[in-house]
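Reviewer 2 asked us to include a model.

Predict the structure of this chain.
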Amino acid sequence: MLWLFVGASVALLLTPGPAVLYIVTRSIDQGRLAGLVSVVGICTGTLFHVAAAALGLSALLVSSAVAFSVVKYLGAAYVIALGIQTLLRPDTAPSTIALEPVGLRRVFAQGVIVNLLNPHTALFFFAFLPQFVNPSKGRVGPQMAGLGLLFVALSFTTDSAWALAAGTAGQLLKRHPLFARGRRYATGGALIGLGAATAFAGGRK
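Predicted model (structure tokens):
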């Protein structure tokens, strides 16, 4: 069953979602290092969901429509605010792009918050993970924790690949004379789109 879990997890991770979009956006905008730091932030946020799933606390989020909606819209509002902040940021001249300071602590913290406030992550652990837990083999909590940590390791691998690829593409785009003018609109628009998609996606099913 472990190989099936790994295969299903990789298939899910290779499908671009909110976390991947955030990582790609950061990588294109600020480079590979910032992209990798955002990956660490996303994975750290996932660890909170792993711990909550193992302890059974996230069941409150899944079972409560009010709690689900609050977390969902808080996460959407946060990402939209990041997008608006990016749109309002002044353009940077191409010659100074490489010298721009990168707020890696903020990139990390934002990655944590983006995934911590992502209700779909909690739903994943409570809809997908239990299918691979066998109560006859021991306590459910430790099994979920082990599978969750394996998922985080797989996530780090696939998300890092996204970050490196997007960061490389971003470096190539920065050589284009129109990139400095257009990148903040593309980045800001992507973040606002991510927030809107989070707010209006799906419901609690």
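Residues 92-101 have pLDDT under 50 and may be disordered. The chain has one domain: 19-200. We have added this to the supplementary material.
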